[in-house]
Design goal:
The chain contains 7 helices and 16 strands. By secondary structure, the protein is α/β, with parallel strands linked by helices. The strands form 4 sheets. It has a 5-stranded parallel sheet, with helices on both faces. Strands 11-10-9-13-12 form a 5-stranded antiparallel sheet. The protein is elongated, with a radius of gyration of 21 Å.
């Protein structure tokens, strides 16, 4: 069994001790060092082999995000933080996972399993990216799902549901869960084809068949519409200003 060498970086001793305790229960993980100082972490990363980095985001002197940006070849990284606001930037930096404190051992193991898969394949996670749209070519996004690169075609998507740090794509071809934020997807998906109709849902406009009350129907699926969005939804999808339904 190959040992995965880990570096723990957090400015709180309690957080470092909890990570150390969790790692002690996983046989193939070993700790290179646990440090409170981001600058000390940089020194270790530049001089020692580190396979997996557990990195807090809010730290004095240098944030976890900025620390990662300084590395030319960063190790596989799992962010640990008490703040969910940084999730989008963490994923843009190719973090393999994002642990929101306080997290359970089960959630920790889930993140480690994901990281182990990337380490064994010698690959970094690939963020969701928009492919160049060429004439005659079906536009699609590429994302990594369960260790595989998957193409999700625009015209295959029925709707997307936000699940905290993940999203679920409901497509004609199946259902896919990817490490991504709904906010980031809202910016990436073409606005002329997709619309965020609720804090947790983005829909493909051409898949909507009817609206009843505060729900849209999309090919058999029923999706809630927020009150604040309903007038805009009715106008865009049904070319009508009547939102009294």
């Amino acid at each position: 069994m190959n040992t995965i060498k880990t570096l723990l970086v957090d400015d709180e001793f309690l957080a470092l001790n909890l990570l150390e305790q969790f790692i002690g229960n996983i046989p193939d993980l070993s700790i290179v060092a646990k440090v409170k100082s981001p600058m000390k972490a940089l020194e270790i990363l530049n001089n020692e082999r580190v396979d997996l980095l557990f990195l807090d985001i809010q730290m004095p002197t240098l944030s976890g995000n900025n620390l990662l940006k300084t590395l030319k070849s960063p190790p596989v990284t799992i962010f640990t933080t008490a703040y969910s606001d940084y999730a989008v930037e963490a994923f843009e930096l190719n973090a393999v996972d994002y642990l929101l404190k306080p997290f359970s051992f089960e959630r920790f193991v889930q993140a480690v399993n994901k990281a182990r898969e990337y380490i064994q394949k010698g690959a970094q996670p690939t963020p969701l990216t928009k492919e160049n749209e060429k004439p005659g070519k079906r536009p699609f996004y590429t994302t990594r799902i369960d260790g595989k690169l998957v193409r999700i075609f625009f015209d295959d998507i029925i709707y997307v549901e936000g699940l905290k740090e993940y999203v679920r794509f409901i497509c004609h071809s199946g259902k896919y869960i990817a490490l991504e934020s709904l906010k980031n997807l809202e910016e990436l998906l073409p606005a002329e084809e997709f619309m965020r109709v609720h804090k947790s849902f983005i829909v493909a406009l051409d898949k909507v068949t009817c609206c009843e009350g505060n729900r849209l129907e999309l090919e058999g699926f029923k999706i809630p519409v927020s009150r604040a969005k309903k007038d805009e939804v009715i106008k865009r999808i049904f070319n009508s200003g009547d939102s009294s339904i």
